[in-house]
Design a protein that fits this description.
With 369 residues, the protein is α/β, with parallel strands linked by helices. It is built from 14 helices and ten strands.
Length: 369
């Protein structure tokens, strides 16, 4: 199956006129009307964005947040000036949701629950929309955000420049993009990042519980064990894991993001929501439980991290399991598994990290990770 990089933006209806009729100031009725209107506006006012140092900051490219294939085609075939003209002419037309859209909606649902339980807390997800677009396109993006009723207040419009410096300034905890090179650049700077794709099929996901699934080696853990497998084969891999059963694996690029998810989960646990927590995490690995799974579990336990569900597939395809889990996002360092997930309609993202990038996975081989 083919996976296509995506690009998108959105639009909104003009804001209604909520101001009261003009008055000379002597009418009590007009004053009361004005007071009621302002009270109603205050009651529906959007919450403030948390400070970056308190939040879990998720930076999402407009190309994976929304569907922008048509606009991308205009840019590629007709150039930047025609592209900008097209965007401005269509700035009141909202873009359709892209592959990251359900994930962002789930983050917002978790935020709603957190605000209910901890009204003064800023330990929330904070979404930053990142685009290489010129600022002229910002109107269409803002219109689209409002059309879909998303709470995204922070924008970065780089006009073609790299966004990595801005991601560091925002203290970004996860960056999702359609640009594999920028994802690799972010990873090199220590920012958790993954490349997303638009698949032909997408299964429905929960609207009330955020589900995040992780591969193990080269995602949560380092690629140490994967290097053994690639260099010496599966038997040596198993031998290495048994000999190092009590030696912790080093961290991978997304360990920090799992830690932050766990921190927010504990806030729900403290309020009695362990069994029906709005955040659920999964380890989906091709490791086998008996011969190599114990080291992974011991490492997570030593890190103080809880995974809600762990699936050790012993080399079996991951797609069918992910179809059952229905994650809002699944992270894997091998495109073979990303494509397998997409074939089942699961939302998957590629983490271009570790030794597997030099050795593309073949369908006939038995994965160690």
């Amino acid at each position: 199956m083919s996976l296509d990089h995506v690009q998108v933006m959105k639009g909104q209806d003009p804001m209604p006129n909520t101001c009261p009729p003009a008055s000379n100031g002597d009418s009590k009725a007009s004053w009361e009307d004005s007071k009621d209107i302002h009270e109603n506006m205050a009651s529906t006012k959007k919450p403030k964005s948390p400070k970056p140092e308190n939040a879990v900051t998720i930076a999402v490219s407009s190309r994976v947040m929304f569907r922008t294939e048509k606009e991308q085609k205009v840019f590629e075939e007709q150039g930047i000036e025609e592209y900008l003209r097209y965007q401005m002419e269509h700035e009141n037309e909202p873009f359709a949701p892209g592959p990251a859209f359900p994930f962002v909606k789930a983050l917002e649902a978790v935020n709603d629950r957190l605000r209910e339980l901890y009204p003064e807390s800023e330990e929330l997800f904070d979404i930053v929309l990142v685009t290489y677009n010129h600022a002229h396109v910002g109107v269409r993006l803002i219109n689209t955000i409002n059309h879909h009723n998303l709470f995204i207040e922070r924008f970065v419009m780089t006009g073609g420049s790299s966004p990595i410096g801005y991601l560091k300034a925002w203290q970004t905890n996860l960056y999702l993009s359609a640009d594999a090179e920028k994802v690799q650049e972010a990873l090199a700077e220590g920012i958790a990042a993954a490349t997303m794709f638009m698949s032909e099929k997408q299964i429905e996901v929960s609207e009330t519980q955020l589900k995040v699934a992780f591969d193990g080696d080269a995602v949560l853990f380092s690629d140490e064990s994967e290097r053994i497998f690639k260099a010496h084969g599966l038997d040596k891999f198993f031998e290495h894991e048994r000999e190092n059963e009590n030696t912790l694996l080093d961290h991978g690029p997304l360990k920090g993001f799992l830690e932050l998810l766990g921190k927010l989960q504990k806030k729900f646990y403290a309020k009695g929501y362990r069994l029906d927590c709005p955040i659920r995490t999964y380890l989906v690995t091709a490791r086998s439980a008996a011969s190599s799974g114990i080291r992974a579990l011991k490492t997570l336990r030593a890190w103080g991290l809880e995974i809600d569900e762990a699936l050790f597939l012993a080399g079996a395809p991951k797609g069918p399991m992910l179809e059952k889990i229905r994650p809002h996002i699944y992270f894997d360092d091998q495109m073979f598994h990303v494509e397998g997930a997409a074939e089942m309609g699961a939302i998957a993202a590629h983490v271009p990290y570790g030794i597997a990038q030099k050795f593309p996975h073949k369908k006939s081989s038995n994965a160690a990770k």
